[in-house]
Specification:
This protein is α/β, with parallel strands linked by helices and about 280 residues long. It contains 11 helices and 5 strands, in the order αααααββαβαβααβαα.
C-alpha cells in the first residue's frame, strides 16, 4: 500500500537527505505507479519514469504521493492520446504557426531555453487548437533543453506585449498556457516575463490569475522597457535577444527551431544572431 506523503521534502537541486534516502523514496513513489505509465510517456516523446520526472511531479503536488500518482497517470493517458507519435507535427498546428508568434531563442545564462510569444500577432483560437499548439511549443523547449548536458530541467517564458490590442485579448488562450504548465509540464517553468504590458493586459491578467497556482504566480514578473538592462539582460544574453528587447540577435521562429533541433544543428542556439527574422 502506498503512503500518502513523502516523509521529507525533496527539492530540485537541494539535498536535505542523503542520496540513498532520496533514491529510496523515489523508488517507493515509482513502485506505486501503474507500470504502463513509463511506456506511455516514452511513446509520447517524454523521458519516462526517470528520477527527475518523479521528483518534478512530487514537488509540484506538494509531496503528496497519491495526488502525484493520480495526476501523473492522467498525464500519461493524455500524452498517449494527444501526442501518439512522440511529437506534434507542424501540420497539426499550422493555423497557429501561420500567426508567426512563437520564438525559441536559445539559452539564458543558466542554460534554460527561452521561449518568447509575440502577443500582438496572436489570433484567438478554439481551446483544442491552442492547447495542442502550446504543447508543441513547450515540447520544443524540452527538446532544446535536453541538448544541454547541464540543463536543470527549467525554461523561461516571455510574453512580448508591445502593441497588444483588443484583437489579441484571449482569456482562453492565456489560461490554457498555465493549465498546460500545471497539468502536463509541472516544475518546468523557471520564470514568466510579461514585457511592456498595456492596460488591456492587466484586465486580462485580473481574470486569469486567480486560476493560476500560487507557486506559479510567484514566477510571473512584469518587466518594462526601462528594466531591460537590469532584469532581462541580467539573466538572458543579449546575443539571443532581438533588437526590440535590446539584444543583438534575431527572432527564431519555433518551427525553424524545431527543424534545427531535429537536424542536430543546436550550436546556433548558443551563438545568437540566428539568421532568421520575425
Amino acid at each position: 500500500m502506498c503512503g500518502t506523503y513523502v516523509t521529507a521534502v525533496i527539492t530540485m537541486g537541494q539535498q536535505l537527505q542523503t542520496d540513498t534516502e532520496i533514491l529510496e523514496e523515489l523508488k517507493h513513489f515509482h513502485d506505486c505507479i501503474d507500470p504502463s505509465v513509463d511506456s506511455k510517456l516514452r511513446a509520447g516523446g517524454e523521458e519516462g519514469l526517470t528520477n527527475q520526472t518523479l521528483r518534478r511531479w512530487l514537488v509540484a503536488r506538494k509531496m503528496n504521493i497519491q495526488v502525484a500518482k493520480a495526476d501523473l497517470e492522467k498525464h500519461a493517458d493524455w500524452r498517449s492520446v494527444h501526442v501518439p507519435n512522440g511529437r506534434i507535427c507542424e501540420e497539426e498546428v499550422q493555423d497557429n504557426l501561420d500567426d508567426k508568434k512563437n520564438f525559441l531563442q536559445g539559452f539564458d545564462k543558466h542554460g534554460n531555453p527561452v521561449m518568447i510569444v509575440y502577443v500582438a500577432r496572436h489570433v484567438p483560437k478554439k481551446l483544442e487548437s491552442i492547447s495542442k499548439y502550446i504543447c508543441y511549443c513547450l515540447d520544443s523547449c524540452e527538446r532544446l533543453g535536453q541538448t544541454n548536458p547541464n540543463w536543470g530541467g527549467k525554461y523561461i517564458g516571455m510574453l512580448y506585449l508591445t502593441g497588444m490590442t483588443l484583437a489579441n485579448y484571449d482569456v482562453t488562450g492565456l489560461r490554457a498556457i498555465f493549465d498546460m504548465l500545471q497539468n502536463h509540464f509541472p516544475e518546468r517553468l523557471e520564470c514568466m516575463y510579461l514585457y511592456d504590458a498595456p492596460m488591456i493586459f492587466y484586465a486580462l491578467w485580473k481574470v486569469v490569475s486567480p486560476f493560476v497556482d500560487p507557486v506559479t504566480r510567484k514566477k510571473v514578473v512584469f518587466v518594462y522597457p526601462k528594466d531591460v538592462e537590469t532584469v532581462l539582460h541580467a539573466s538572458i544574453p543579449k546575443e539571443i535577444l532581438p533588437a526590440e528587447l535590446g539584444g543583438t540577435g534575431q527572432w527564431l521562429k519555433v518551427k525553424s527551431a524545431w527543424e534545427l533541433i531535429l537536424e542536430g544543428s543546436v550550436d546556433v542556439f548558443t551563438q545568437g544572431g540566428h539568421g532568421a527574422t520575425a
